[in-house]
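Much of our argument rests on the idea that a fold can be written as discrete symbols. The amino acid sequence and the backbone structure tokens for this protein are reproduced below:

___
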Amino acid sequence: MHANGIEPCVKVRSNAEVSGNTLRDRVVSAYKKGKSAWKRANGYGKRWFVESYFSVSKRWFGEYVSSVRFENIRFEVVFKVWILNLFFGMMN
């Protein structure tokens, strides 16, 4: 674990074996016990969700804001995020 409390979360191959690297060996052991449980415990897949969210946002609203003043830019971005959250909330 890093001094800042950050631990890497790298998916290993399904045929990975314990090799002597303690950090990797913990991941391999946990992964062999249950892939789904390992993913849930480490939050694996959150990046995919966030990237999908921004991809949808760019497709719907474009990559740019049309406002010029900072206050209006902030309002426009907050409004667009509110619309996306409303839409995704209705899907759950």
Observations:
- Residues 70-91 form the longest helix (22 residues).
